[in-house]
Design goal:
83 residues; alpha+beta; four-stranded antiparallel β-sheet; globular
Amino acid sequence: MTKLKSLVEERRTMVFYESPHRLLKTLTQFAEYFGPERQASVSREISKVHEETVRGNLTELIEHFTETDPRGEIVIVIAGIDD
């Protein structure tokens, strides 16, 4: 969690790779540290037939993946903090 604390004030876009089994836990931790309204996207199976990207704030993404089981290779993109 120390690493997440150090990223709270990051202005650059952040990219994380995660397993589908840990996605909800990771999104929840991101919401705790970065705030539930931080904009983000979750992409799966990039450059493959079943490619999918879901965008919204962290709360919306948590709700989406609570209802829809995540599968495949996951990439999470988090917006940097606004000025």
